[in-house]
Amino acid sequence: MSTKQKVLLLGATGATGGSILDGLLEANQFDVEVLVRPSSAGKPSAQQIKNRGVPLRVSDLNVSEQELVSTLQGIDILISAIGPHDLLQQKTLVRAAKSAGIKRFIPCAFITVAPPQGIMLLRDEKEVIYNEIKRLELPYTVIDVGYWHQISFPCVPSGRVDYAALVPNTTIHGDGNAPNILTDSRDIGRFVARIITDDRTVNKYVYTWGDILTENEIIDIVEDLSGEKVERQYETIEESETRLNDAQSSLSLDPGDPGKRTLVYITQYTYSKYVRQDNQPRYAKYLGYLDARELYPDFKPISFREFFAEVLNGKGKRPYGY
Fold first, then answer.
1. Could you point out which of 18, 77, 102, 225 has its C-alpha 20 to 30 Å from the C-alpha of 68?
2. The NmrA-like domain covers which part of the protein (predicted)?
């Protein structure tokens, strides 16, 4: 009989969830299963997971708490990488996890370091779930990863990295010297596999990082490796604030529009990272986060320089499968 901890992962077909699944399987110390909705169970992405030998548990999240308790039976660690528009669906899952005797719940965090309320709508909705966990005294760990290498690099004039770019990233905000926590998306799962077996991280917040870089430093690395000059555009703090206010005003007129909500997420990320300068180790430590690199000094993450060298060599991949 297996003595491995049994881990159930929600959101394994997404970008973050896919990295977590890879990291858990690579660690080879867990019995891993994946939770999928009935509408997704027959999709190719779910079949690919089954083909890797990972069992599926099928359930909607909007069923009764008791049905979810049944779905969670036998699970030690529950990890959620649910999509950003469905965060609040975790509330019933949290209550079911408590009733099912889950030993540790990892709620969907995996974003930049930011204040608990009032700065990022995405962070505010995650906080609702964190508070529900704490209300029930369910053991937890919140894991944030900063911003990905994969969405942080600028395009170069030749166009040779466009194939891997989600956005151009040639805009410098303010003076471009705000330090930012960055993690290669492929390292997320490898970090998670370490964190969830560490008693030091129970009921704690943890941040991961592969590099701490400013916008100017990122562009300097890109220019050095590519031999090309990036045409830097500049956005003042006032212009960033105007864009944020416009996006929030637009959403307030139509709160149910997912496109407007996504635009608010993006502009709030920018404001938090570059204007408030929240996404940096100093502020993370102030908020009480543990540093994963300090916890695991032997862990060798992928640096931004290593990542971008891969992109230049044609080995990059555009995030989110776009």
1. 18
2. 3-238
